[in-house]
C-alpha cells in the first residue's frame, strides 16, 4: 500500500456457506410455518374442532352440489316455460336459455372472486406487514422476493382451500346437471386454484401501493371499517331485495344473475372454459381457459416482480406510526363519573370508552347494529298504515324495545364479553391495583352498557315520537331496554370473565370460539325468556279482553327476569374476576 | 420527588414471602420461598433464565395465586386482603404492556383513578414523573407509537404515581437509555430512603452489587442464598465480585440438583 492510499475496507467472507436461493428460502420459511401450524393439531380439542369444521364444510359442499345440480336440471328441463314466464313479468330483453344456465357458475365464480379479493387483502396485509416474524426474515441473508413469495403462498392456502371446498361442489353440481364429464370438473378445479392466485397478486399490488401511503396498522383498521360498511351494504341490499314482490323476485333474480354471464364479464370466460371442457371442445377450452388463467398469472407475476423494490421499503416505513396526538388534548380533570361510582369504576369505564372510540375496529362494530335498528324501525313505521296492522296498537308500540334489544343486545354482550381481555397484558394495571372484583365488574359492565343503552333510548325515543307512542309507554319501553341490556351485558361479562384471554393479536380472537358460542346461546335464551314473559301478558290481553293493567304485568315480569339474570351473571363475573391470574 | 401513600409505622417487613410455592401442572416453578424485605431496604432478586423470578414476583403482587405459602405486603395477605395489600405496592413488569389508544397522560390518569387519587395530586405527580423520565413533551402522544424504552418509562411512572411503599420491578433497566437507567437507580434509592421496600430482579449484576442492601439468588425455583454481598461471599467461599459469587452459588446448586 503506498502512502496516501486509503486502505480498502476489509471484506468479511460471508459466502463460505451455500445460501439458499429463492426456492430454497421459500421452502425453509413455509416448512417452519407448517411446523407451527400442525403442532396444535396434536391437541384433542383442536382435533375435534378441525373434524367438526371438515364435516361442516363437507355438508355445505354436498348441499351445494345437490342444489346446483337440481337448479341446473330445472333450468335445462324447463327453459322454455321459464323464459315465457319471465317475459310476461319483466320489461326489456329476456335472457336466452344458455345465458340462464351460465348464470349459475358465473355467480359462483363472481362470489368466490369478490369474497376472496377481500379476504386475501386482509390476510396478505397481516402476513406481509404485521407478522411478528418479519424483522427476522427481512434481516436474514435471503432474497426479499423469497420472503414475499412465501408470505403470498402462506396467505393463499386458506382462500384456495375454501374456494375449492365451497365453490367446486357447486360447479361439479352444475356440470352434473348439464351432463358434463370429469373434464369440466377438472377445468373448474384448475380455475378455482388459479383465480385466487391472480386475486392474491392483485391484492399484493394494492397492499404494496397502499402501505407506501399509509402505515400498515392504519390500513388494517381502515380495512376493518370498510369490511363493516360492505357488510352493512350487503345486508341492506338483501333486505331491499326481500321487499320486491315475491312473485317477481325469482325470475328477476335469475335475470339479474344472467347479466353476470355477459360476454365482457370475466366470470363468463371461466364459465365458457368449463362449458367447453364439458362439451369436449378442446380449442374453445384452451382459448377461454387461457383468457381466464393468463390475467391471473400476470397479476401474480407482477406482484412478485415489483416486490423486490417495493416490499422492503414499504415495510420499513409501514411500521413507523409517527407521532400521533388525539385532537383534543386534556388536562387531568375531576371525572364527573366519580359522583356516581368509585374512582376505580369511573377510571375503568372511562379508559374503555376511549379505547373503543379510538380503535377504528371497535368503532366500526357500532355501525351495523345502528343501521339494523334504524332500518327495522323505519320498516315498522312504514307498515303502520297498512290494513293488516289495524288493531295492532299495543304490539306496534312494543316494537321499539324489541328492536333495540335484538339489534343492540349483541353489541352490549360483545363489549362486555371482551371485558378484561380487551386490555391484553396491560390488564395487570388493574389486577395489581387496589381494585375489588366488584369494581372491575362494574367498570367493565358500565363501559359496555352505557353506550348501548344510550343508543337504545335514542331509538325508543325517536320511534315513540314518530309513532305517537304515549309518553308513559315510551318510559316503560326505555325501562325495558335498560333492564334487557343490563341483563345482556351481565351475561356477556360473566362468560368473558370465566376465561379471559390476554395474549391475542387478532382482535377477532379476543373471545374464544367456545365462549363466543356459549355467549350467543345464553343471549338467545335470555332474549326468548325476556320476550316470552314480557309480551305474554300483552298477547293474552289482546285476545282475551283482560284488564288494562295486565300488559304492565309483562313489563314487571320482564324487569324481574332481567334483574335476576343480571344478579346471577354479575355474581358469576365477580367470582371469576377474583380468580383471574396473569 | 418521593411520595409514599401511607406513613411508615409498622416495624415488620413490608414484603414477606413465606413458603411461597407455585406449580404449573407437573412443573414446580417456585418452591417454598421465604423472603422478607424491610422498610428502607433494597433487595436484588437474581437468578438464571427460567429460575422462577417473575413467577415469584407475580405471586407477591397478586397476579398469580400461590399453590402453597403466603405473600404479605405491609402485613396484609395479598390474596386474603387484596385491597389493603395492593394499595401499598407498585409493580413494573418485565414487558411494559400499556393500554392501547391512550396517551401517556391518559394512562397515568387511568392508574390514578384505580388508586383513587384526586385529580390535583395525580396531575402534579404525573407531570413530575414524566418530566423526570424525559417524557414531558410527549405526554399527550399516544403510547402506541412509543418505543420499548419510552413505554418502560411510562410503566415506571405509572407504578410510582400512587407512591407505593413496596416496590417490585422485574428487569427495570431493560431497554432504557443510560440516563433513564441512572434515573431509575436514583428513584429507587430515594424510595428506600423514604422508607419503601424495594425488590427488583435484574441480570445486570453490577447494578445489583452497587444498589442492593441484600441479594436473593433463586435457581430452579428455590432460594439458593439470601444476604449481603459479604454474607454471600462467605457462603460461596469466593472473594470476588457478585458475578463470581452468583456463578459459584448457581453452579453449586446445579451440581446438588444433579445429585452424586
Q: Quaternary arrangement of the chains shown?
A: heterodimer
End-to-end Cα distance of chain A: 64 Å
How do the SSEs of chain A run, as a string of H and E? Answer: HHHHHHHHHHHHHHHHHHH
Helical/strand content category of chain B: alpha/beta
- What is the number of helical segments of chain B per DSSP (H or I, 4+ residues)? 9
Number of domains of chain B: 2
Shape of chain B: globular
What portion of residues of chain B is helical? 25-40%
Largest beta sheet: strand ordering of chain B: 6-7-8-3-9-10
pLDDT averaged over residues of chain B: 88
Terminal Cα span of chain B? 54 Å
Summarize the structure in words:
The complex is a heterodimer of chains A (582) and B (260). Helices cover 77% and strands 0% of the residues of chain A. Chain A has 582 residues and is an all-alpha fold. Chain A folds into two domains: 22-318, no CATH class; 336-579, no CATH class. Chain A is globular, with a radius of gyration of 29 Å. In chain B, 38% of the residues lie in helices and 23% in strands. Chain B has a six-stranded mixed sheet, sandwiched between helices. Chain A binds chain B through residues 321-326, 329-335, 342-344, 346-348, 350-351, 354-355, 358-359, 423-426, 428-436, 579, 581-582, and chain B through 58, 61-65, 82-87, 89, 91, 93, 95, 97-103, 105-106, 109-120, 122-123, 126, 138, 140-142, 144-145, 158.
Quick rundown:
The complex is a heterodimer of chains A (582) and B (260). Chain A is mainly α and 582 residues long. Chain A contains 19 helices and no strands.
Task: Map the helices and strands.
The complex is a heterodimer of chains A (582) and B (260).
Chain A: H1 22-38, H2 44-89, H3 97-129, H4 134-138, H5 144-178, H6 182-213, H7 216-242, H8 246-259, H9 266-279, H10 282-318, H11 343-358, H12 360-383, H13 393-397, H14 399-418, H15 428-431, H16 437-467, H17 471-498, H18 513-544, H19 550-579
Helix pairs in contact in A: 1-5, 2-3, 2-5, 2-8, 3-5, 3-6, 3-7, 3-8, 3-9, 5-6, 5-10, 6-9, 6-10, 7-12, 9-10, 11-12, 11-16, 12-14, 12-16, 14-16, 14-17, 14-18, 16-17, 16-19, 17-18, 17-19, 18-19
Chain B: E1 15-24, E2 27-37, E3 42-46, H1 53-61, E4 68-73, E5 76-77, H2 82-86, E6 89-92, H3 104-114, H4 119-132, H5 148-160, E7 166-170, H6 178-193, E8 197-201, H7 205-211, E9 214-219, E10 222-227, H8 229-236, H9 242-258
Parallel strand pairs in B: 3-8, 3-9, 6-7, 7-8
Antiparallel strand pairs in B: 1-2, 1-4, 4-5, 9-10
Amino acid at each position: 500500500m503506498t502512502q496516501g492510499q486509503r486502505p480498502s475496507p476489509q471484506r468479511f467472507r460471508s459466502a463460505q456457506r451455500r445460501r439458499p436461493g429463492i426456492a430454497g428460502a421459500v421452502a425453509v420459511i413455509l416448512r417452519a410455518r407448517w411446523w407451527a401450524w400442525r403442532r396444535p393439531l396434536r391437541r384433542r380439542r383442536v382435533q375435534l374442532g378441525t373434524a367438526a369444521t371438515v364435516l361442516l364444510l363437507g355438508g355445505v359442499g354436498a348441499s351445494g352440489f345437490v342444489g346446483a345440480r337440481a337448479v341446473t336440471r330445472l333450468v335445462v328441463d324447463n327453459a322454455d316455460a321459464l323464459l315465457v314466464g319471465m317475459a310476461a313479468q319483466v320489461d326489456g330483453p329476456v335472457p336466452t336459455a344458455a345465458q340462464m344456465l351460465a348464470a349459475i357458475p358465473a355467480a359462483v365464480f363472481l362470489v368466490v372472486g369478490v369474497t376472496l379479493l377481500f379476504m386475501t387483502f386482509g390476510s396478505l396485509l397481516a402476513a406481509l406487514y404485521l407478522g411478528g416474524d418479519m424483522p427476522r426474515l427481512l434481516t436474514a441473508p435471503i432474497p426479499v422476493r423469497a420472503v414475499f413469495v412465501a408470505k403470498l403462498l402462506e396467505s393463499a392456502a386458506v382462500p384456495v382451500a375454501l374456494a375449492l371446498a365451497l365453490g367446486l361442489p357447486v360447479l361439479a353440481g352444475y356440470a352434473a346437471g348439464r351432463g358434463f364429464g370429469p373434464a369440466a370438473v377438472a377445468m373448474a378445479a384448475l380455475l378455482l386454484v388459479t383465480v385466487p392466485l391472480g386475486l392474491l397478486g392483485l391484492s399484493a399490488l394494492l397492499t404494496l401501493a397502499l402501505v407506501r401511503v399509509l402505515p400498515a396498522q392504519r390500513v388494517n383498521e381502515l380495512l376493518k371499517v370498510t369490511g363493516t360498511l360492505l357488510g352493512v351494504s350487503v345486508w341492506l341490499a338483501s333486505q331491499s331485495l326481500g321487499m320486491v314482490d315475491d312473485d317477481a323476485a325469482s325470475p328477476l333474480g335469475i335475470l339479474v344473475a344472467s347479466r353476470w354471464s355477459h360476454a365482457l364479464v370475466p366470470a363468463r370466460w371461466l364459465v365458457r372454459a368449463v362449458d367447453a371442457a364439458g362439451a369436449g371442445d378442446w380449442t374453445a377450452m384452451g382459448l377461454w381457459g387461457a383468457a381466464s388463467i393468463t390475467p391471473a398469472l400476470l397479476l401474480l407475476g407482477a406482484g412478485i416482480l415489483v416486490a423486490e423494490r417495493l416490499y422492503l421499503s414499504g415495510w420499513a416505513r409501514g411500521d413507523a406510526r409517527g407521532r400521533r396526538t388525539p385532537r383534543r388534548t386534556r388536562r387531568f380533570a375531576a371525572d364527573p363519573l366519580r359522583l356516581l361510582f368509585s374512582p376505580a369504576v369511573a377510571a375503568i369505564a372511562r379508559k374503555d370508552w376511549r379505547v373503543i372510540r379510538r380503535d377504528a375496529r371497535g368503532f366500526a362494530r357500532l355501525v351495523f347494529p345502528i343501521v339494523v335498528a334504524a332500518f327495522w324501525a323505519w320498516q315498522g313505521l312504514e307498515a303502520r298504515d297498512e290494513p293488516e296492522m289495524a288493531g295492532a296498537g299495543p304490539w306496534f308500540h312494543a316494537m321499539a324495545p324489541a328492536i333495540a334489544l335484538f339489534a343492540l343486545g349483541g353489541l352490549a354482550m360483545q363489549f362486555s364479553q371482551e371485558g378484561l381481555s380487551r386490555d391484553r397484558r396491560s390488564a395487570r394495571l388493574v389486577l395489581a391495583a387496589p381494585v375489588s372484583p366488584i369494581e372491575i365488574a362494574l367498570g367493565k359492565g358500565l363501559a359496555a352498557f352505557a353506550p348501548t343503552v344510550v343508543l337504545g333510548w335514542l331509538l325508543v325515543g325517536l320511534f315513540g315520537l314518530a309513532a305517537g307512542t304515549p309518553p308513559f309507554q315510551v318510559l316503560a319501553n326505555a325501562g325495558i331496554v335498560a333492564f334487557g341490556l343490563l341483563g345482556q351485558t351481565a351475561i356477556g361479562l360473566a362468560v368473558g370473565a370465566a376465561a379471559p384471554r390476554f395474549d391475542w393479536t387478532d382482535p377477532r380472537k379476543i373471545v374464544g370460539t367456545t365462549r363466543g358460542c356459549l355467549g350467543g346461546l345464553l343471549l338467545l335464551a335470555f332474549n326468548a325468556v325476556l320476550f316470552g314473559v314480557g309480551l305474554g301478558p300483552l298477547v293474552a290481553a289482546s285476545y282475551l279482553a283482560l284488564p288494562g293493567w295486565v300488559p304492565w304485568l309483562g313489563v314487571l315480569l320482564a324487569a324481574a327476569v332481567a334483574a335476576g339474570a343480571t344478579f346471577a351473571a354479575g355474581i358469576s363475573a365477580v367470582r371469576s374476576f377474583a380468580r383471574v391470574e396473569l | 420527588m418521593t411520595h409514599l401513600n401511607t406513613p411508615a409505622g409498622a416495624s415488620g417487613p413490608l414484603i414477606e414471602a413465606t413458603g411461597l410455592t407455585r406449580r404449573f401442572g407437573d412443573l414446580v416453578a417456585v418452591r417454598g420461598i421465604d423472603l422478607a424485605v424491610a422498610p428502607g431496604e433494597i433487595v436484588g432478586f437474581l437468578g438464571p433464565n427460567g429460575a422462577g423470578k417473575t413467577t415469584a414476583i407475580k405471586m407477591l403482587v397478586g397476579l398469580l395465586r400461590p399453590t402453597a405459602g403466603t405473600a404479605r405486603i405491609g402485613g396484609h395477605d395479598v390474596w386474603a386482603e387484596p385491597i389493603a395489600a395492593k394499595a401499598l405496592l407498585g409493580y413494573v413488569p418485565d414487558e411494559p404492556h400499556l393500554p392501547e389508544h391512550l396517551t401517556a397522560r391518559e394512562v397515568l390518569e387511568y392508574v390514578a383513578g384505580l388508586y383513587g387519587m384526586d385529580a390535583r395530586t395525580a396531575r402534579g405527580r404525573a407531570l413530575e414523573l414524566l418530566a423526570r423520565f424525559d417524557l414531558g413533551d410527549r405526554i399527550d402522544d399516544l403510547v402506541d407509537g412509543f418505543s420499548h424504552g419510552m413505554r418502560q418509562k411510562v410503566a415506571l411512572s405509572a407504578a410510582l404515581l400512587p407512591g407505593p411503599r413496596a416496590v417490585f420491578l422485574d428487569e427495570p433497566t431493560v431497554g432504557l437509555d443510560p440516563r433513564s437507567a441512572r434515573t431509575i437507580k436514583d428513584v429507587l434509592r430515594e424510595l428506600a430512603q423514604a422508607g419503601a421496600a424495594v425488590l427488583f430482579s435484574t441480570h445486570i449484576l453490577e447494578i445489583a452489587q452497587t444498589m442492593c442492601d441484600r441479594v436473593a439468588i433463586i435457581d430452579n425455583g428455590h432460594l439458593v442464598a439470601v444476604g449481603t454481598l459479604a454474607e454471600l461471599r462467605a457462603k460461596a467461599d469466593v472473594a470476588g465480585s457478585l458475578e463470581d459469587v452468583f456463578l459459584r452459588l448457581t453452579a453449586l446448586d446445579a451440581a446438588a440438583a444433579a445429585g452424586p
